[in-house]
Amino acid sequence: MQEIEVKIKLDNPEALMKKVAALGGIKISEQEGLESDIMYNNQAGDFDFDNPTGKHLRLRKAPYGNVFTYKEKGEEHQNLLQRFEIQTKIENFEVMDEILRKIGFYHFRIKEKFVTKFELEGLVLEFHKLPFLGDFLEIEAAENTLDVFLPKLGLSLTKGINKGYSTLFLEYCKQHKIQDDIPMTFEEEKKYASMFGRT
After folding, report:
1. Which residues of the chain have pLDDT under 50?
2. Under 8 Å between Cβ of 34 and 114
3. Fewest beta carbons less than 10 Å away: which of 167, 177, 183, 193?
């Protein structure tokens, strides 16, 4: 139930995927695709990102099924994101969403990412493409394991980011002076493309 992960920003994810494959990485094709998340909050604000407990409540629709997750803040680390996590698979996404709204929760954040996964040396490497934020690599593993493994990819634990994507998105919105309550989706990104000189 303890989640420990490194998150590293990537400039060239395709090149790194090729390197992983060359090292013997096996693509987990059945888990590739779009992950869509709903983050929930209640009227007390118990699951607001400003809450010092770091509590999160998330319902995810993914290629491998629907997952309901509770997270809270773990031990602080300069380059790792450490959280307490409980999650379970959910058969019916829409019914679970309705249950949560009936008991007082509401949609707090909407976010998407496209995920490509590889298995290498017993670790699962997740390549994430996110609207607005770009490309990242995430690996869940103990710190001593990551210290040995990352240099094989030409990476270092010192490049790890100890923040979640929702927090990074709020920082992005502040930096680019756009409202921070918009959905973090690929469709929403298209609406803002012209603002940043992209087509």
Report:
1. 199
2. yes
3. 177
The topology (CATH level 3) of 2-196 is Hypothetical Protein Pfu-838710-001 (2.40.320)
Q: What is the pLDDT of residue 75?
A: 85
- Every domain of the chain and the residues it spans: 2-196
Q: What is the DSSP string of 3-30?
A: EEEEEEEES-HHHHHHHHHHTT-EE-GG
The pair of structure tokens assigned to 112 is 């998407």
Q: Tokens 């998105």, residue?
A: 169
What is residue 199's predicted lDDT score, i.e. its pLDDT?
A: 44
Q: What is the pTM of this model?
A: 0.92
3-state secondary structure of 168: helix
Please give the pLDDT value at position 33.
97
Which H/E stretch holds residue 37?
strand 33-41
Using CA atoms, how far residue 126 sits from 108, 117, 129, 131, 139, in Å, is 25, 5, 10, 16, 6
Residue with tokens 């139930």: 1
**What 3-state DSSP class applies to 105?**
coil
| Alpha-carbon gap, residue 195 to 114, rounded angstroms | 23
Token pair listed for 75: 């031990």
